[in-house]
Amino acid sequence: MTLDWRWLPLAATNFILLFLTAMVNDGLAPWNLSLFLAGPCVVWAALRLETGPLVLCVLLSGLAGDALLPSPNGFLMTLFALSAGVIAMVRPTLGRAGRSHQLVLAWALNAVYYLAFTLWAATQGTPFSTAFIERLAVDFGLSQLLLLPVGLWFFDFQESVLRLAHLPVAQEPAGRP
Amino acid sequence: MNFPGQAAFAAPALDSNPYAKSPALASPPRSQFRALVVLALFLAAWWLAPVAIRSWTRVGFQEFEAPAWLAFGRLGEIQEYWSLRNHKQLDLIEAGRDLARMNAAQTLLLQQADSAREEVRRLEDLLRLPNLAQFHYEIARVIRRDQSAWWQQIVIGKGTADGLQEGQGVVYAGGVVGRIVNVFAHTAVVELVSSPGFRVTANLGDDPRAVIFQGAEAPPFRPPVGEVHSVDLGVNTKGTEPLLLVSSSLSGRFPQGLTIGKVFQLETDTDGLRKSGPVLLNPRLSDLHEVAVLVPLTAPARNPQPPSAR
């Protein structure tokens, strides 16, 4: 059995998304705003990869993302792994998920990740002041709003990279209808 | 792995979903749990792995990503260079003239600082006092600013290779920036003074009594803020004139008298014993491009014993 090498470019594109988000946040810092766009990272991989390559993709993407964040090492990877596992479990019921399915998944996952990071911040002693809640609401709303164009671009980007690498885009995991 | 009665996928229509149509296939088969189980096992192995392995991977990924961020920082410098190149020659001549005047004024201030330092040294010798903390300023470029609702930090382009260590204070022209929380070979992460996790001993103006400053969350589009606690009941704000909050040498991280922020109002705490109030920080803190790290000078102590011991 040969390894499905699609995990590698997919992990690289995930890193590019996280890196670009960090660059945008650098520019937004003077306005006291920041974006969180990790939602689309594992969606495509979880819908198309077998378990082995999916674990590798999650490991590399998660740890690369964790290196950009001050949260405990492995926190983002854990979120990626759990969400990828759940998507892989329900993927037969999703059929061949089109862009709309992928966007909805990315949107939902981004919200879950945002909540997880907020809970982690709460455990670090961050007080839930009015200013904190206002900041959370604005950042979250902006991130979810931008996820629509960014998600569309990102899924197309992932498929373009796979085509450039001469890897199959339409290949589905075994057992898929 | 194919399910009974299923053909291998052969480019079916995008909306085909036999699971939804067939009652027998409506629930996911057991094999579909495999990915979740494998990922859960993998996570368990990760979190049970020795801390050394986890921290090694973090450092490895940080070091791997560092060149990309350093290149991003360089890109900013090139951008700044070309924007300066577009200035008219007359503008540059005027800027040079202004800088020369400022330089002359700063030279005079430096001379005064030198004589003050000598005076402090002479008094320390005379009174046999322990040395005041002294620092060497290591200038560093800010290569990334990350100021989310959860954390407020910047990444600077210097690290252990330049003598930086965790815990060292960071300052800029407007006062205190924060402290180093993570240091790598060529980069370091600085927790900003506006971060809710940042606490430091400070002084209100000339008042020698120590107070505690803590960073606080600011709403969007507003300047960074903090809070001051443990203020003595006798300290009051003077109308609309703010009290200047400055660093205290008691912290051991910053020299005495560096600006932290301004306090416009103080209110008595619910216990009635102390006062606290909001601190307005410099808006430039959110738009830093260059900072200085305070690297302690490890000069041998001249008076290791306090006078009482003698």
Describe the overall structure.
The complex is a heterodimer of chains A (177) and B (310). Chain A has 177 residues and is mostly helical. Chain A has one domain (7-164). Chain A is built from six helices and no strands. In chain A, helix 1 packs parallel to helix 3 (51-66). The radius of gyration of chain A is 16 Å and the shape is globular. The two termini of chain A are 21 Å apart. In chain A, 51% of the residues are buried. Chain B is α+β, with helices and mostly antiparallel strands and 310 residues long. Chain B has a domain at 135-297: Rod shape-determining protein MreC, domain 1 (Thrombin, subunit H, Beta Barrel). Chain B has helices spanning 18-21, 34-48, 51-85, 89-127; strands at 135-147, 152-156, 169-172, 175-183, 188-192, 199-204, 210-216, 225-231, 243-247, 259-263, 267-268, 275-280, 290-296. Chain B has a six-stranded antiparallel beta barrel. In chain B, strands 6-7-8-12-10-9 form a six-stranded antiparallel beta barrel. In chain B, a hairpin with an 8-residue loop joins strand 7 (210-216) and strand 8 (225-231). The longest helix of chain B is centred in the middle third of the chain and has 39 residues, at 89-127. Mean pLDDT of chain B is 82; it is low at 1-26 and 299-310. Chains A and B meet through helix 1, helix 3, helix 4, helix 5 and helix 6 of A and helix 1, helix 2, helix 3 and strand 1 of B.
- Strands in their spatial order, largest beta sheet of chain B: 1-2-5-4-3-13
Shape of chain A: globular
CATH class category name of the domain at 135-297 in chain B: Mainly Beta
Mean pLDDT of chain A: 89
The rounded distance between the terminal residues' Cα atoms of chain B is: 84 Å
Largest interface: A-B, 67 and 69 residues
What is the CA–CA distance across the termini of chain A? 21 Å
